[in-house]
């Protein structure tokens, strides 16, 4: 009997270890790679150790033909990206992301409004993904502007998934992944035009969504400093915790929700350098040009050059620094770990970074390990 108990106990330990390993393997650890020259980083320089999925960002849609634009230069970049990631680690999946924050939202709305134009777009996306060796497709439409456009988005997801499955069956190749970058909340409760994402269509036709849990504060409001990716906000619903819980409340399975983490900060110019907490009076943007944005690498450099004071804020689970009149709100390793722990408590699918090339010596990217 004693021997049996020892065997049973050993088996339980093995099962527990295996479960934890499977959870670790299943977690999505993703990042977007910007192809633009202002933040270019050679794909071969990406340390793929810290990621399970990497997104090429971005490819544009032609507003007249509804096909993806692939210039000769873009063709080279797409090929280099997939080849480099495959060489570094063939286990890492690559996806091509369509759109982005600077894309033409009106063109997306027009494309999604009719079945013929949706079909042209869908066929073009599958062709590009297969031609350049991607494992999946991602839509970053920022943002459908009204309930009608959200209804069109639902139709697009349904038809897109159907086309992807048909193509996989006919080509005898693994099905392409289909994901989307979405607002931090399923409901646009801050907008003059309230609308919500089609959660049912997302649930049944996408593999997961990347919730953009950042840019809550920025240059559009220079009256006071703020945590632009606050995990918690005791004064409002503009926070990551609210957005994640709202997405889960909309009926989206936990495994289909991926939390966004920023690798950049927003800056302000303090009104009084002696008053420097979150919510301190400000009179404009700080370092980082007209937009008041610094990559994490630039934040680290600014901190060192200016001997800045760095503060971790437990209330919002964020970090900020100040030096003279300059104030920067961002995430460092400590606040990133806090947010990843939150993701674990909610049992969601994982996290993604915007953007992989903004990190400093992989200081933030490695925290998920």
From TrEMBL:
GO terms classed as biological process: carbohydrate metabolic process; chitin catabolic process
Superkingdom to which the source organism belongs: Eukaryota
Keyword vocabulary terms for this entry: Glycoprotein, Glycosidase, Hydrolase, Signal
Stretches assigned to the GH18 domain: 27-369
Range of residues in the leader sequence: 1-26
PANTHER family linked to this entry: CHITINASE, CHITINASE 12-RELATED
Annotated protein name in UniProt: GH18 domain-containing protein
SMART domains: Glyco_18
Single GO MF annotation: chitin binding
Family as reported in the entry's similarity comment: Belongs to the glycosyl hydrolase 18 family. Chitinase class V subfamily.
SUPFAM superfamilies documented for this protein: (Trans)glycosidases, Chitinase insertion domain
A Gene Ontology term for the protein's cellular component: extracellular region
InterPro entries with a match to the protein in the record: Chitinase_II/V-like_cat, Chitinase_insertion_sf, GH, Glyco_hydro18_cat, Glycosyl_Hydrlase_18
